Amino acid sequence: MSKKRDLSELGKKVIYQIYPKSFYDSNDDGIGDIRGIIAKIDYLISLNIDMIWFNPFFISPQNDNGYDIADYYNIDSVFGTMDDFEELVAKLRANHIGVMLDMVFNHCSTSHQWFQKALAGNQKYQNYFYIRSTRKDGSLPTNWQSKFGGPAWSKFGNTDKFYLHLYDPTQADLDWHNPDVRYEAANIINFWQKKGVTGFRFDVFNVTGKSETLVNSNGDETAEKKLYTDTPIVHKYLHELNRASFGQDSQIITVGEMSSTTIANSIDYTNPKNQELSMVFTFHHLKVDYKNGDKWQTIPFDFMKLKELLFSWQESLDKGHGWNALFWNNHDQPRALSRFCNTQTYRIQSAQMLATAIQLLRGTPFIYQGEEIGMLNPDYTSIEEYVDVETKNAYHILQKSGFSENDAFLAVKQKSRDNSRTPMQWTAAKYAGFSHNKPWLASTNQDTINVAAELDHGKIFKFYQKLIALRKSEPLISDGHIMPLLRDDQRVFAYSRYLADSALVVLTNFYDKTTTIELPSKYKRRHGSVILSNYNRTLGELPRVLTLKPYESLVFKFS
What we know:
eight-stranded parallel β-sheet, alpha/beta, five-stranded antiparallel β-sheet, single chain, 24 strands, TIM Barrel, 4 domains
């Protein structure tokens, strides 16, 4: 058995996320594809990333943009062929870039042969799913609600039974209590490893831990989630999967998307001695603009809550030998720039500030396509412009709950997953240089924000290059511990990364106004050097009092 991966190795890695449907369209059908990614490899090389996480491009009806998988072993023809994929892997490997695939194992498409065989009466495959009879009073097996709205149960074919789907009705939950399901999952991973894949991201994996006997919730959403989220058996599933597949190669990188997880569980998921995962995606820090925990009721983000969440997770995982995936953006989140910053006046500075704040933390940074050029949410004007199933469902549910049509639209406009799924903006052309024909989803601001302009005279992409170079060359970033600074400051997110007597001080002003700070005495008047600044600041030493400009980020190293 291979040795466990050293956490310091993970600290040097930077992973780029590509949403294939929206990256680049090589055949002008309006949908991004694998050959489009191949065509942009030089761009990816220039960023100096180590690995690319690809959202699913397996065969799928696309009811949830590929997260409803109908065949885990083949490429959907919309995206290309297996030959295309193998060429992509080979060309990326030749440039020292690994491939991470998205494994959707909590559920599969109802079009998958497993579910179709279950519908046809095959008992073996019926045991792959949660298929239950109604309760004695004729009600659904449980009162659970789907995360996409409505009951989490749908009629199982022409029978009098129902099947569980925590997400869309076309995404049937797999029963991980069944060893056959776990065997299938390991086989899928091993198949792709043989194709040269060196990374795996596990979608919503910690909701696989449902009980064999399902019970009603008390109607409280938080309590209901606890019935199936982050339960102890998830650790057993992950350890078994690790030993049967990816854990046999210490170079494989894995990340689990862990919904509503805890610090303690995340330490256990990622502590190398437990042989589960390399790192976890957690989302608590991206819920700081939810009103009473409701995604669709937006409030100004709570900066102090954001700080405390980031600090508590960073400190605890450091002490517990766990590992964070670091990110602001992905395919399920609105663009962080639009969410947290004044982009009308300070788009460039705030993009650089957000990058500094997250990328120099302890963990492995993820960059979502377009983040490195400062892409923003699209400015849509009607619900018809959205494609995402969750967005459309939420729009109607909000109206039924009393929202006006306009207020419901404004809510989904701010939080829709489509905000991050708009095509990559390569040029200022009509379709953003993504395609010569109308894309599956529209861009709205490519005239001012695009790769061509950014590479020609922009400042965000170059800043990302500097951050990545720092992570690869500076042990304080890749290996160092973390200590929060200015914990009570209402505007500044600051921390130190340290090893022995050496340290970095990272200062980021999260607001569009100047602010004055005073660092703890141990850092004052200590000679060192500025190694990163988005205002081209140079200092020979940290002064007693320091004024930070709007969205300023400043990184100071001393030993």
